[in-house]
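This section describes the prediction task in plain terms. A model, or a person checking by hand, is given the sequence of a single protein chain and must write out its three-dimensional structure as a string of tokens. No templates, partner chains or ligands are provided. The sample shown here is typical of the held-out split.
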Amino acid sequence: MAAWDLSVTVEDLGPDAPSVTISVTSDLHIGGVIFKLVEKTHIRHPEELSLLRPVEEKKKKKDKDSAEEIYDLTEVPLSSVSRPSLYNGMPAHFADSVQMEAVYKMLSITQPPPAPEVIAKQYRPASVVDKAHINGRWLDSSRCLMQQGIQENDRLWLRFKYSAFYDIEPKYDVVRLTQLYEQARWAILLEDIDCTEEEMMLFGALQYHISKVSQSEPQMLTSSAAMDDLDLALQSLEVKMDGETSSASDMLDNITAPELNDYLKLFRPKRLTLKGYKQYWFKFQDTSIAYFKSKEESIGEPIQKINLKGCEVAPDVNMAAQKFLIRLLIPAPEGMNEVYLRCENEQQYAQWMAACRLASRGKNLADSSFQSEIQSIRSFLTMQKTTSGSHGNSPATDESINTHSLVSPRYHKKYKAKQLTPRILDAYQNVAQLSLTDAVMRYLQIWQALPDFGLSYVVVRFKGSRKDEVLGIAPNRLIRIDLGVGDVVKTWRYNNMKQWNVNWDIRQMAIEFEGNINIAFSCVTADCKIVHEFIGGYIFMSTRSRDKSDKLNEELFHKLTGGHEAL
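The expected answer:
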């Protein structure tokens, strides 16, 4: 087979961002293309990425004087080391020449905020069905380029397909973090994921800060051999101490677990939609919460005791409105039960949110990370606060910032630039001291905390149903969504899944869960192979562990995602 030049846009960084090209053979399957790309670009954990056909753009006249900048990765030497030696803050094999260094800088330095007109011209999904159609564009990872109609010099998007980002280390993941940030930023700007107005202002402030700092601090993290040796020594010491003290620590935890009791308000959307929130006395016990009618009745049997281990915990906070909600999705035989807890203030919220997060991971309040979790939540709340009038003391007010480059088009129409500027600068005061790495990490953390993060949609027709519905595919569960009103009908977790099969003749997927629960559906907006890959891919992601080798188990990954091609 002849070698092709495949043009790959590394993330959708915008129409003005340069492309990269690699030389591939037409019979190379997509998984092979991904592995070759990530080895060249040094993005760790290639299993999280895939290739996507871009949305068709309107043909536009090309400026004869302007030539598209393209970076050729063909000559970049391959690196098989997960944590390579660093030179001047970059993997050593990129420091061989000026050209290779330019490639690395292009991949590792964040792009400046796009012009408002550039954002306005981009395709924005207007509904969940539009989002579902985009997911129908993923290439089949087990088939070759030629089988999927990819021709020489075709352009594809390299994107993080699976929202399960494992083992992020800023020192070794500069390119990975930059590309994650770009994907998150464009998801926010193009309204691919919903967020509140308050969160949008914080995203805008962080984007402004990242752009500003990256001009003076282009490398996320520099390193020296001495510091690397010190880090390794400290990690080794930490592992050794953990091993020596774990049993004693476990015994102490059971004795000294602190108590957490207070009045909170409870809301169950399905049962009490018309009654709203009702106040109860809540008590945290190990990894469970129990609630009573009042504090005086807490010595008796609770109304209900809810085990939070394995549940989903999501924030629903609006600082301006003083709304502090904790959303719990609790595993049940037929799916997930949804419960909301309302806290009175941010101090109470930080404690209970931290406790719920630990309990969902199987840890109790005596765990050493409880206080750090509280501090992390308080830090997040502080960022969302706006300090009235504080922006007047900021030197940033004297600069001309294009606020319409920092928020989605919805806010271009809702507010004038002079109205957005003080709000973004207010939020900026809370992030102005962050380093470039910390700012990027904070942006990603807030993105991952959004309620709809990680959901990939496909329109399906369930067996026995006469109407189309939406299947939401998350990192740990499947969600059945009513297409008409957008309500969640049912949720199924992967850890309750016994098996899944695809009837390739009629293109129908069947899944069996514990408790004799069976579902079957055909896909409307995507091939069922795409859904099969998503499920198999996420199950593979759950098998990754720090105790295991960093080397990717390609055979298992292909077996779980390949379908009949893998047999």
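For orientation: Residues 334 and 517 are 7 Å apart (CA to CA).
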